[in-house]
Protein 1
Amino acid sequence: MFNEYNPLKKAMFQVIDNDGKVINKRWMPQISDTRLLKIYKDMLFARVADLQIVSYQRQGRIFTYPPNYGQEAIAAAAGALIQDNDWMVPAFREMGTMLAKGVTLKELFLYFMGYEDGSKFENAKFTLPISVPIASQLLHAAGIGYAVKYNNEDKVIYAFVGDGGTSEGDFHEAVNFAGVWKVPVIFIIQNNQYGISTPTKMQTASDSLAIKAVAYGVKGIQVDGNDLFAMYKAIEESVKVCRNGEGPVLIEAVTYRKGAHTTSDDPTKYRTKEEEQEWDERDPMKRLKSYLIANKLWSEKEEDKIIPQFKEEVDRQFIEAENYGPYPKEDVFKYLYAEMPDDLHDQERQYDRFLQWKATKVK
Ligand SMILES: Cc1ncc(C[n+]2csc(CCOP(=O)(O)OP(=O)(O)O)c2C)c(N)n1
Ligand SMILES: [Mg+2]
């Protein structure tokens, strides 16, 4: 596959078309009907949750949130393949993979409400916290990959970044290091066409993002990120490469951020309705649903039945997060170092004095 789709050939890997019809039988992954349906339902759950979170934010019940809307196939494919003992190294737009790893929606809600506990992940092993400093997580992924290889562990590291993240030095250092040491990391670039308002063509003069793999001497592939089957197959093959000690792999997943960058952003300022409509045709849920319906595995009726159940579950976890209690003040200070240094103790004391002063002012 990596020869056939060498990025120098400038061909994007696809398996189904926009109507859900298989156009590339040779690379159709083997997924049982039951498993496929589970993947679709997981994608649907992530979409329902995502849309609902934006509505909570509009009600002033949660802080800034970066929607996953339109990018669900990438996170779902990775989520279907990642094992409990594999490492998940997220950016901030991969809800489906986080949920598959065992992170709960409640924990994600706590994170976006500002609680440190929202990064604890009681049930998810080998999962790093959400990373907002763009691309910094990739250095951690490369380092973890090195440790995994050094300790002879049979684990793969799934590391995510956006198209904008590929312009950061951290991206180049991480992929270069991973290539030199042949570490088992799958770098997944979610090319959603924008880094906030900056279009991908302003991000690089390269022919693609996948082609950057060539310079680092690692395997790379450009994949239709709105095609669940293509993403699944590309990741499945990448896992094999990594487990054979021939990693890393760089995947460029071509997708579209249908929502705003975050709930603080207004995309009408920098993109057109026509462009949005064009990408609606390639919506990942619509394409997979068409495939499932054509193969009599799913129906609109079943979907109408399940969506209210999902909404109820999302609400249930949200209300639990809302009732979590006051934010412990020490959490602001205690997590940066294993032991708090003196200047942080000083800052905490200053903050205490500020709170006392504020309390007298309010009275
Ligand atoms: C090091 C750093 N610089 C700038 C920012 C501000 N910022 C937040 S998201 C973002 C754009 C990221 O774009 P991309 O990598 O394409 O990811 P996407 O948001 O599209 O998923 C920027 C510049 C940041 N968080 N970290
Ligand atoms: Mg982007």
Protein 2
Amino acid sequence: MRPPSGKKEQHTARAQVKPELCQGYGRCEEICPEGAIRLEEGVSRIERSRCAGCGECMTVCPVTAIEFDWTVDIPLFVERMIEYALGAVRKKKKNRDFITFY
Ligand code: SF4
């Protein structure tokens, strides 16, 4: 299932393949909802401009050949998450409750 465009924009982190580990199983290509992955010469390639950052590919890779660079991507992700949360809260005038967990 493809994420809504706002969700895609919020998730700024993009998957990347470690080619030295990729064995070409292709599970990531099958599961990617954006069609951002294709096998080329036995190695998965991710088209970053199509990647939604959902992480599905990472969860199915049996050799952990897919990663995210959280040190670069997390600050912008958190900033956008706050913006989206604020937008959702502003619509609700009453009965607002907040739950935060780590
Ligand atoms: S994180 Fe992986 S599965 Fe999700 S859109 Fe990006 S390449 Fe596809």
